[in-house]
Amino acid sequence: MTDPWVALNPGADPAERVRVLRRAHETFTEVGTVPRPVRAVVAESWRRSARAGVGPDGSARVDLTDGDLWSYRAEHPLALVMPLFRELMGTFASDGEHLLAVCDAQGRLLWVEGHPGTRQKADGMNFVPGARWAESAMGTNAPGTAVALDRPVQVFAAEHFIRRVQPWTCAAAPVHDPRTGRLLGAVDITGGDGLAHPHSLGFVQAVARAAESQLALLTPIPAATDALQLTALGRDEALLVADGRTVRLSRRHSELLVLLSRHPDGLTGDELQCALYEDESVTPVTLRAELARLRRLLGTGVLGSRPYRLAVPVESDVAVVERKLGAGAVTAAVAAYAGPLLPGSRAPAVVRLRRRLADGLRAALVAGRDPDLLAHWAQAPWGEDDLDVWRALATSRPTAPVRARLAELETEQSAYPGAYAGWARR
C-alpha cells in the first residue's frame, strides 16, 4: 500500500482483494495469526477486537432508544453541526446509495441518514441510531476504530471484524472540541465497495475539519468572569480555557490547578507543599515561585493568597466524571473519562485523587457487568492489565480470547504479585 490508511490502491481489483481478506480473516479467527496482505491498522484492530472478546458473528446492541436517544442527541455538541454534515454529505449519501453516520466518543451511533434502501439494509445489522459500534463492542469498523485511534480511517469489506458487516465499506474521521481538543465523536460515510477510494477518506476528513471550524464559531467564547474550564484526564499537561484562550499548562501548573479546583476555600502554602512534593527537602521558595508564574498566566485577580485559592469557579472534566458516577450514570461517566488524571504526576494528592477516581469507575464497571463497557476499559491503555476488569469481562463475555488473556494475566500476577492492576491504580 502506498498509503497505509487507504484500504484499496487505485486500479486494484476489489473482488480479488475481498477474497484475499476473507481468507486472512478465516486464518485469524481460527489460529490467531494475521497474514501479510492485511494492512497493519486492520491487523492491530483485529487483535484489539479479539482481546476485547468480540466474536466474528456478534451483533450490535442498541443502548439508547426513543426519548433517551432524543435527549442525549439534543445535548450532544455534535448536534450543533448536524446541519453542516447534512449540507456537505447528505446529497452525496443519498445519490450514491450511501449512509451518513455520526457517533459519539464511545462509538455510539447518534445519527444515521441517507439512501432509504441502504438504511433498510443497514437496519439488519443494527447500524441504527442508539446502537453501540465501538471497536470493543463491534470489532473493526470505521466509526468505532476512528474514535479508538483518534484519527481518520477507512475499512473495506472483509477488513471488518464481524462477518455480517463485511459486505460494507466505510470511512470515518474524528471530530474534536476546537477549544479543548477533546474527542467528541466521528463522522462516517458507509456504503458499498465504491467507497474504497482515497477520495472518501479525504472527504470525511475535510468534513470533520469543517465541523470543528464551525463549532469554534458556534461555541460561545467565555467572558473573563466565566468559569475556568480545566481538562486534565488522560493528559500529563492539562488544558485550561480562560478568558477565551486555550492554554496548555506545564505539569506543575496542571497539578496546582487540579488541587486548587478541589478546594474552593483555599489551601495554605504548607498544605500545598505537602500535596505537591514527595521530596520533603523542597523549600517554600520553590512553591511560591511556581505560584507566582501561575498567577501571571491566569491574569489579575484570579489566584488569591493567604490561603491560596481561585477567585473564579472552575469546571473540570474530573468533576464531570465524579458527578455522573455519583448519579449512577456509569455509561456517561465512562464516556467522559478520557484516561487517568495527569498520569505522569507523582504529586501525592494527585496520585490519591487519580486512584480514587479510577477505582470508583472500576468498581461500578465490575458491579454492573456490562460486557461492552468492561471491554472498552480492558482495551484502553489504562485497563489492559486490569485483572479485576478482565475477570468480570470473562464472566460476562467468556470468549476464548478473553479467557486466554485472563489466564495470561493471572499467570503474570502469580509471578509478580500486585503488579497487574492497570495504569489508573499507579
UniProtKB/TrEMBL annotation:
One of its GO terms (biological process) is phosphorelay signal transduction system. The keyword Nucleus does not apply. Keywords: DNA-binding. One of its GO terms (molecular function) is DNA binding. The keyword DNA-binding applies. Transmembrane segments: none annotated. It holds the Pfam family GAF. SMART domains: Trans_reg_C. InterPro entries: GAF, GAF-like_dom_sf, OmpR/PhoB-type_DNA-bd. Residues 244-310 form the OmpR/PhoB-type domain. This is Transcriptional regulator. It comes from Streptomyces aurantiacus.
